[in-house]
Amino acid sequence: xxxxxxxxxxxxxxxxxxxxxxxxxxxxxxxxxxxxxxxxxxxxxxxxxxxxxxxxxxxxxxxxxxxxxxxxxxxxxxxxxxxxxxxxxxxxxxxxxxxxxxxxxxxxxxxxxxxxxxxxxxxxxxxxxxxxxxxxxxxxxxxxxxxxxxxxxxxxxxxxxxxxxxxxxxxxxxxxxxxxxxxxxxxxxxxxxxxxxxxxxxxxxxxxxxxxxxxxxxxxxxxxxxxxxxxxxxxxxxxxxxxxxxxxxxxxxxxxxxxxxxxxxxxxxxxxxxxxxxxxxxxxxxxxxxxxxxxxxxxxxxxxxxxxxxxxxxxxxxxxxxxxxxxxxxxxxxxxxxxxxxxxxxxxxxxxxxxxxxxxxxxxxxxxxxxxxxxxxxxxxxxxxxxxxxxxxxxxxxxxxxxxxxxxxxxxxxxxxxxxxxxxxxxxxxxxxxxxxxxxxxxxxxxxxxxxxxxxxxxxxxxxxxxxxxxxxxxxxxxxxxxxxxxxxxxxxxxxxxxxxxxxxxxxxxxxxxxxxxxxxxxxxxxxxxxxxxxxxxxxxxxxxxxxxxxxxxxxxxxxxxxxxxxxxxxxxxxxxxxxxxxxxxxxxxxxxxxxxxxxxxxxxxxxxxxxxxxxxxxxxxxxxxxxxxxxxxxxxxxxxxxxxxxxxxxxxxxxxxxxxxxxxxxxxxxxxxxxxxxxxxxxxxxxxxxxxxxxxxxxxxxxxxxxx
Length: 709
Ligand code: NAD
Prior knowledge:
The chain is of the alpha/beta class. The chain has three domains: 277 residues, 2-enoyl-CoA Hydratase, Chain A, domain 1 (Alpha-Beta Complex), CATH 3.90.226; 179 residues, Rossmann fold (3-Layer(aba) Sandwich); 185 residues, N-(1-d-carboxylethyl)-l-norvaline Dehydrogenase, domain 2, CATH 1.10.1040.50. Helix content is 50%, strand content 12%. The strands form four sheets. Strands 13-12-11-14-15-16-17-18 form an eight-stranded mixed sheet, sandwiched between helices. The longest helix has 22 residues. The protein starts with 6 loop residues before the first strand and ends in a 6-residue tail after the last helix. 49% of the residues are buried. The site of nicotinamide-adenine-dinucleotide (NAD) has 26 residues, from helix 13, strand 12 and helix 16.
């Protein structure tokens, strides 16, 4: 018996009882093995009590009702049988909860996820607080599994088939108001005095004033009431899932089937299908990879370095594409006052209108109220020159990519601001140290490399130079976290980490294009492999001016392996001003609604014959991915990042490396480094020295792989 129960029962004289979930030593409630055992014990005891008229399930954690199953339980499932057994045990436990001889009320005052949501679905009533950050969801598909403790069977009965499919297949969690709208919770009660409101509700239940809410009869719903209507709903769900994931993620597809069985063949068949599916999915490679990625992202969010306070006021110099977006992120996500400066008033106007467009998008998606949006926009103060920057505790420079211009900006800033102010550059290709060395007090200079589009890409590379004070790095890292981004520390070296790896993806696609592959075929091959964007489309998205500039910097640094075809880039793109998506033309012509068609004229100008044939997918993916693996080995050997896990995290968050493959290094380990080295040797023999595998990769292979060495 645990020293102190994890589920604490309290029964009042009037028969109103509470069961309080309080996992010791944890900020959040989780279903650990011990918690499940303790709930089982509590249930045995509860069944014996004849003095309970209504039971309220509470949590003692300020910010967590229950965050679901402990992921280490899922990680420990190596065989399908073990997963199936775990699922059946959880189902039986929650069925006992459902079958208690008195009504139960789940009092959801804060985040409720996975198993927490499943237990509340097995309760007679669910009440949620109207607190703003409350979320309720079933995020299991994000770990490559499905709700396995009855959620796939109960949710459609509570909210109807269509909404249940949406919630389970996307794994997105819902704000309280949305959960109430769907009927997932019976009432939304004020955050202030929540427990008093719950007690009033439960007292009414106790006195029989709140009849059991009948299960929603999904057969009554128009589309769901007949087999044909249901088939349409399931077919649409399958189609949407395939569009979203190209079938790379087995869990949502399997969940559709389990939900179908639960709806059409009854609850018992549904529970059985759910348990078998959970077992198979949890032991599968994709789920193991997604569990690995989950652990990486959690680690990335927490961080390991020394804690520091984020700045209270920030400045951004340069109101272009990046500066405007960084200012927006700091004001909206970070809630910080920001001074945004430029030398051109037109840029300030544009930067502010870009920020307000992003804010408007948040209002439209109901992520923000109009009043909050007004407040956030008022936090950004545009200005010509650097007046008022003295008060900023951290300044991000995002002016044009020119060392002399940046040095001048840093010198001016250094004259104006106190020595303690953090000076960060958003450069993507210049050396942070080269910039710091001409700045008074170089120890407060570092790089904060945001990615475009800033509001979407969760990664920021934190680049400390040799002289950077660790305290400055810690403060800048705290700033990145405050903005809701994941910081990754990388060494000051050409292209830092993500661009250095990604350049191989981009330049090799140019060689393929020159040899006769059609650009759509190249892009399609990489989409099929799991990247969110093919390399040619990505180059157009990044902008040809920027992409080629970064490529040249890396060509200078690594001339034997970063090689761009010698085409007339100037004549084909720069002179006519065809710089990619931002100008409407690049390799593709970009139409409204994101529609793109290959621009034959660009190919003619580059003297490349235009092709329509499909390339060989196998060789396209091999040529684009294997050089990144080799470069990853070099980056680790040079200490650009400390370990393979950090590199994998950065590539997933910064370059969209497919999460279901678990990360670049993990994927390479799964293939076997010896196999990849042999493939690179073969490519070097036929296509050129740029593919020759490095000693760094051979050393890793000899040591047992990226993760074992
Ligand atoms: P941009 O051309 O859109 O904006 C640069 C802005 O700086 C312009 O508005 C210009 O008027 C202003 N400026 C120039 N000199 C200035 C000065 N002395 N004082 C104040 N403002 C000045 O460029 P961008 O794409 O926003 O890039 C800015 C920085 O971010 C560059 O270092 C770039 O390498 C880096 N970066 C860009 C991307 C990207 O995808 N665009 C991604 C990551 C990093």
